[in-house]
Amino acid sequence: MIATNFGPFASRITGTGSAFPDQRLTNLELTKKIDTTDEWIRERTGIQERRIAQAGSEADRNSSLGARAALAALEMAAKTASDIDLILYATCTPDTLIPSTACWLQKKIGATKAWALDVNAACSGFVFGLATADSFLRSGQFKTALVVGGDILTSMTNWEDRGSCILFGDGAGAAIVERTEATNPRRILSVHMGADGRHWELFHVQAGGSNMEVTAEVRAKKLDKMEMKGREMFKVAVRTLGDYAVQALESNGLALGDLDWLVPHQANLRIIEAVAKRLELPMEKVLINIDRYGNTSSATIPTALDEGVRKGLVKPGETVLLDAFGAGVTYGSILMRW
Ligand code: UT7
Known about the structure:
Blueprint: E1 2-3, E2 9-19, E3 24-26, H1 27-31, H2 38-45, E4 49-51, H3 62-77, E5 86-90, H4 101-109, E6 115-119, H5 125-138, E7 144-152, E8 170-181, E9 188-195, E10 203-204, H6 216-220, E11 227-228, H7 230-251, E12 261-264, H8 269-278, H9 290-293, H10 300-310, E13 319-326, E14 330-337
Parallel strand pairs: 5-6, 5-7, 12-13
Antiparallel strand pairs: 1-9, 2-8, 3-4, 7-8, 9-14, 10-11, 13-14
The structure holds oxa(dethia)-CoA.
């Protein structure tokens, strides 16, 4: 599906923020728990360490990290919580199933005017949330949205599965998205989104939803934890991230290599390198944080973007492509002029 500007309004990100738990888990520490090496993890994934939320810690709750990221984004945008009309919280690891994590966050930051809901598209969640916010803002219905991507993937990690547990970490990233004139060059230029439920088996959690209750037996079999077919997921990721990036460039009349910044989902550095190669981009034009945080699911893109913005790398007028891929499978890209 393609959405481009067709009315008087567009939208743009005016503030970003990030938050991570304090506790680090290094590769070396992982070698004490499972049969792996620091060298294997670095070479095969690019990850050096990740952050782990402490179970039971109020500060490390998904919505608490999201609230910290949201407040930082509000400050950058020079807005207050009372300016927010809409909160979209992208997560597949909600604080609670009821109420939504968006409502927990709304309470924490005091955004009393906003309506609030969760979006679940796994690792593509932030990009799906941003596409949804863009649509509401372009319709003219609202002025200001808060989009958060936050996940505590370690709550669903099978620490006995060395093929997956080395990948995941926890964190949250946020963006304030504001309505602007469609004539403003600094805006979201296009949105390309997709999903293919036929590939559900590549990455899923069997229990915990209405399909299967989490009983002692289910817990013993780890059916409430993530199951991933890593090699197959890798291939689909490289293909769809590349395809959706190329579609975004082509539909905006841009050539390969024209991007100032690629902000890809951070699942594996080798996936990112393959996509950059296809786009003829040097790695210096790719915002990376997987080395320090691992795969934080819906938080990878907003936190990598936030880091690029705060370091002064991403400058006004530059062309930025967000490129996502996740369980479902889900995928999508958003091209914007910063
Ligand atoms: O957010 C989106 C979802 N996630 C992804 O997109 C992840 C995509 N997949 C990947 O990133 C990679 O497939 C992995 C990092 C998960 C695995 O890397 P790989 O290069 O595809 O390894 P592999 O599964 O093909 O396994 C190669 C070997 C195997 O040993 P044998 O059979 O060749 O003897 C594995 O048992 O590496 C072994 N292995 C490990 N060795 C040391 C698997 N995990 C580990 C480990 N440490 N942690």
